[in-house]
């Protein structure tokens, strides 16, 4: 009997040890994993991989990549709840869509405003901009715009009642979106069609609509021979892309910030548009495009 009791005690002890070891391993794994999230369009997919590749190359931190999580509000909420640790956000989006503040046109002032707002409200840090400004833009087919003499959004206002407008659902719902730009420029389209971001470009290219919402750094704008209508009254604020990080992630991983800073000021409008074009037009893989760009620019080493 004593032997059986001793065996049971030993078995129980071993089981407890195994369980504790497994829990510790799981906890350590979780603590050493950073989640990088992104919105539901090509540029954000590329940016998720750019950020993730740098972290993996320069640190020992495990990275979970989550592109295409949804629109701005979805990813912003994921950052605030801690489901996502890092993302690339745009200053104008942070200012107007997340913090619900009025437009500011000075890029430095916008950055400082969102930096303070996110620190105070969400305990999230904004790093310095990556170098490109992906502002919203209204686009037309170049030949049509030139034929009608439409160069800017003020010109568009007189023709809008004859036109059909393709818009993402997000732009229709944002505070810095369609409902705000309509009275600002006195634009009232004959018809508005809400659709996925990629379909907006296709609809404009195939003459299904006359005007489309676009992102200024999208490679399909030059590839499809579109023209961006000048925001001549400066409705849109700057949308400078910047990495934002939860402060608790920076506290747990002090090496993280130095790695992320390697991307600051490194990506021009042209370079971002070129990467977007490789994915959208040439059908290359976003992860490969991101990695090749990082290697070509000496930010990470090739294997």
Task: Please tell me about this protein's structure.
- This protein is of the alpha/beta class and 303 residues long.
- It contains 15 helices and ten strands.
- The longest helix is centred in the N-terminal third of the chain and has 30 residues, at 2-31.
Based on Cα principal axes, name the global outline: globular
Mean pLDDT: 91
Distance between the termini: 61 Å
Question: How would you spell out the order of helices and strands?
Answer: HEHEHEHHEEHHEHHEHEHEEHHHH
Count of separate DSSP helical elements? 15
Name of the CATH architecture of the largest domain: 3-Layer(aba) Sandwich
Helical residues, percent:
40-55%
Fraction of residues in β-strands: 15-25%
Strand order of the largest sheet: 7-6-8-5-9
**Rounded radius of gyration (Å):** 24 Å
Q: Briefly note the structural class of the backbone.
A: alpha/beta
Instruction: Using the coordinates above, name the CATH class of the largest domain.
Output: Alpha Beta
Low-confidence stretches: 14-30
Question: Using DSSP, what is the number of strands?
Answer: 10
CATH superfamily of the largest domain: Periplasmic binding protein-like II
Please write out the topology.
Layout: H1 2-31, E1 33-37, H2 42-58, E2 62-66, H3 72-81, E3 86-90, H4 91-98, H5 107-122, E4 124-133, E5 136-141, H6 142-148, H7 153-159, E6 164-167, H8 169-173, H9 178-185, E7 191-194, H10 197-205, E8 211-215, H11 220-223, E9 226-228, E10 240-246, H12 247-252, H13 255-260, H14 269-280, H15 286-296
Parallel strand pairs: 1-2, 6-7, 6-8
Antiparallel strand pairs: 3-10, 4-10, 5-8, 5-9
Helix pairs in contact: 2-15, 4-5, 14-15
């Amino acid at each position: 009997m004593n032997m059986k009791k001793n065996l049971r005690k030993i078995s129980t002890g071993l089981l407890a040890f195994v369980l504790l070891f497994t829990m510790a391993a799981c906890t350590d794994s979780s603590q050493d994993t950073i989640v990088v999230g992104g919105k539901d369009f090509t540029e954000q997919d590329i940016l998720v991989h750019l950020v993730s590749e740098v972290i993996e190359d320069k640190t020992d931190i495990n990275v979970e990549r989550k592109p295409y999580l949804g629109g701005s509000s979805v990813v912003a909420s994921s950052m605030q709840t801690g489901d996502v640790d890092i993302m690339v956000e745009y200053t104008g989006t942070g200012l107007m869509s997340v913090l619900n503040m009025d437009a500011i046109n000075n890029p430095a002032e916008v950055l400082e405003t969102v930096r303070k707002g996110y620190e105070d409200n969400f305990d999230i840090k904004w790093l310095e901009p990556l170098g490109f400004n992906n502002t919203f833009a209204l686009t037309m087919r170049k030949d049509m715009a030139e034929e009608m003499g439409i160069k800017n959004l003020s010109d568009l206002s007189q023709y809008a009642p004859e036109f059909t407008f393709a818009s993402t659902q997000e732009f229709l719902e944002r505070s810095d979106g369609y409902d705000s730009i309509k009275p600002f420029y006195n634009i009232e389209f004959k018809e508005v069609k809400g659709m996925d971001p990629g379909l907006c470009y296709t609809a404009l290219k195939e003459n299904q609509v006359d005007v489309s919402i676009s992102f200024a750094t999208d490679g399909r704008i030059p590839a499809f021979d579109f023209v961006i209508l000048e925001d001549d009254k400066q409705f849109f604020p700057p949308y400078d892309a910047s990495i934002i990080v939860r402060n608790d992630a920076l506290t747990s991983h002090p090496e993280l910030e130095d790695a992320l800073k390697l991307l600051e000021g490194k990506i021009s409008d042209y370079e971002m548009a070129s990467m977007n074009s490789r994915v959208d037009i040439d059908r290359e893989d976003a992860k490969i495009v991101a990695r090749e760009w990082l290697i070509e620019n000496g930010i990470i080493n090739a294997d």
